[in-house]
Amino acid sequence: MRNAGRYDHYDRSGPKVFAGEYAAQSVGVVKPDNKNNWLTALSEAAFMTGLERNADVVHMTSYAPLFAHAEGWQWTPDLIWFNNLKSYATPNYYVQKLFSNNKGTDLLKVENEGKALSGQENLYATAVKDTKKNEIIIKIVNTDAQAKKININPINLKVGKKLNRIDLSAPALSSENNFNTESVMPKEETSLLKNGKITAEIPANSLVVLKLELI
Length: 215
Known about the structure:
By secondary structure, the chain is mainly beta. It contains 2 helices and 15 strands. It has a 6-stranded antiparallel β-sheet with strand order 6-9-10-15-12-13, with helices on one face. A 3-stranded mixed β-sheet has the order 3-4-5. A hairpin with a 4-residue loop joins strand 4 (80-82) and strand 5. Helix 1 runs parallel beside helix 2. It is globular. The protein starts with 16 loop residues before the first strand and ends with a strand.
């Protein structure tokens, strides 16, 4: 979370960045007890808003590692765990999936009082426009123990009435998925904006993706 603004003041005339093999460690680097829990996934989501906001210098990223066998692994955490019969996706995997499937084509500014949201009041945010689908995509991470109500005022952009929303959260920061159940998964819903106003409640400790059609 503290590294969400890492590239905000990066030298734009310098070399481009490949943020390779990053992952939040629940215990410590190269510790066998590291967990793919919701706290690490939420932390990575906050960090990734900074990667997306600075996409002009951060050209590539990669999580590490991708796969791990439950009975024979060399590193933790990992995105997908498997055994000889089954596999399951971690909360961290679903964070990666939401960012990857909603990356858009053009970066937009999303600010509060003229500043990028990179941890103020425990909120992190980024926004993109997808010219292929003609929509705006806003990603908001709330790392606070309390829900936050936000108002969004698009400038020079007209949006339709339909709002597609994807929520990713968990019962507790310690929540994990396993071979029997994936309790941490995205949930999607569609609603209509009231009076043309874009307001949203961002649950405690959650990642929310808002998708609005441009008109």
